[in-house]
Amino acid sequence: MMGYLVAILTFVSLAVLLGLALNIQWGQAGMINFGLAGFYGIGAYTAAILAKHGVDGFTATAAAIAVTAAFSAGVSLATLRLREDYLAITTLAFSEAVRLVLMNEVWLTGGTDGIRDIPRPLVGVIGGEHYEVAFLVACLALIAIVYGLLERIVSAPFGRALRAVRDDDVVAATLGKDVLALRVKAFAVGGAVIGLAGALHAFYFTYIDPGEFAGFVTVYAFMSVIVGGKGSNRGLMAGAVTVMILLEGTRFLKDVVPVLSAQQVASLRLMLIGVGLIAMLIYRPQGLSSEYRLSARQPAGAEPGS
Amino acid sequence: MRSVANTMWDPVAFRAAEGDSRDELPVPAPGAASRARSNVPLLETRNLAKRYGGLEAVAGVDLVLSHPITGLIGPNGAGKTTLLNIVSGVERASAGEVRFRGRAIGALPPHRLAALGLVRTFQISRELNSLTVLENLLLARPHQAGESLFGLFARPGRVRREEAAAIETARAALQRVNLWRLADAPAGSLSGGQKKLLELARAVMLAPRLILLDEPAAGVAPAMEEILIDTIRGLAADGVGFLIIEHDLEIIAALCDHVCVMAAGQILTEGSFAEVTADARVVEAYLGLKP
Ligand SMILES: Nc1ncnc2c1ncn2[C@@H]1O[C@H](COP(=O)(O)OP(=O)(O)O)[C@@H](O)[C@H]1O
Ligand SMILES: [Mg+2]
Predict the structure, then answer these.
(1) So where are chain B's domains?
(2) Tally of CB atoms within 10 A around B191
(3) Does domain B44-127+192-291 bear CATH number 3.40.50.300?
(4) What is the mean pLDDT of each run of 10 residues along chain A (306 residues)?
(5) Chain A contacts of B168, Cβ < 8 Å?
(6) Which of A101, A143, B114, B213 has the fewest CB atoms in 10 Å of its CB?
(7) How far does the centroid of ligand 1 lie from the alpha carbon of residue A201, in Å?
(8) Roughly what angle, to the nearest 10 degrees, separates helices A2-22 and A36-52?
């Protein structure tokens, strides 16, 4: 049971990181990333391939972050220079392209067989026995760091400019904001976090194949952001946990209703998840929490109404 | 030492206090008087045109802003907003050129124009809905260290100081238009007239040299019209140029040193308010009669 809990929490941690990334790209900057899974795959494969070639885990993770951020910047720049509303479709196409490359460039990625026995960082020091717990602790610590950095970004003038671009990019531009640069930066920051999650994914499972980086990863991230409340990082964490509870909780359905076949249970699961999301959208459309807003009452004794 | 509230309405002093890094154009001597004497007009368009398919919304406009406050009037559909869209970089002209303080700006995107000191408001208010009233103003502040990813992590002290100073400046601007009490309200929750005033206050945060206003008084309550007029006058006295599109001719009469009349995409006539309103062609254009 303990092992199961640790596994689930690690899985939730990865989902939280992906959600945090989408929350700055889509929640703050209004940029739809339907190709999140592809960027996740780039992060995971970068870390895995480097680790297999003897690069240490930390360097491999740093490389995964940098490479995924660079791809994110490149894809968003190329798209936005043409037309900003194409981003949803180009990211989707991009993630398909990534999947095809992962499946077909066997020399690099192992093709559909994937990559096995990815060496875990510090496994010699920590030892196999406690590794899973230590890994979970590391994940939680990384979430804390990422959360702190993102909160700083969101509450700074940079975050305010992102929300302005999201609300009305023409107005933001007439007020002196370089809309293209802001969007590319927001997408790259999100990409960096996705790259980190990808590296953790590779090291946690020690085995990756192209099928793991398919659309459902993207869907879960969007669900987390919607449930949590677009733009709020705190809400996002609650949202990601809620979504994972829905996903995992419904797994036990087969024990509760033993009369149903495995296939029926699977369908029922999807139905329940859908109903849960719809209920959420009806009763709390703004999500669990709302985004950062500066208050004039807080800073430097400035008080409205005076 | 001047108070922030005073410097706020004096863009030159405001910029000096900021440590202005706007280096692309020579800085003119402050004050409206010297501007009037300088022979480079603040804004100049030559043979400007904009076609939408078969419709020529702007059809060869030569406009020279050589007065502190210029009015632009004309019937609906005359092309006033389109002209303003082109000048502010929101739309590209089909032909012709625009010069801002002597420099050709036709190819520059809006954010570059804003950095040069040219800012506009919108006929249909475009407040940033999910930002608060105060955040709308803070956003417009130029050269914020906290707007770069590097600056916000590497220079937290500077970001904090700039933000505190920006809040003081914004407070003065909002108090002026009676919106400070709503500082924390989402801008989307304001009334139509309040949104207009918010847009003006927001434009002022850029410490601009020229403000283009598209129907600033539309929907503004009569009590607030006074505030609007006073605010514009105060800014103009400090050397900010204005081009004002407005249907309320009383406001045009009260504010403008010079009035251009537009009809069917062209400048019909221009002169003082008394001159243009006495012109028979202007009356015809407004009544929709064919001259
Ligand atoms: N984006 C557009 N596409 C097509 N026609 C437009 C567009 N914008 C404005 N127009 C047309 O151009 C003409 C001038 O419009 P506008 O500049 O808004 O006039 P005004 O501000 O003087 O009322 C109108 O006939 C209008 O319908
Ligand atoms: Mg108009």
Answers:
(1) 44-127+192-291, 131-189
(2) 13
(3) yes
(4) 88 96 95 96 98 96 98 95 83 95 94 93 84 96 98 96 96 96 97 98 96 90 89 91 83 75 80 83 82 70 43
(5) 300, 302
(6) A101
(7) 54
(8) 120
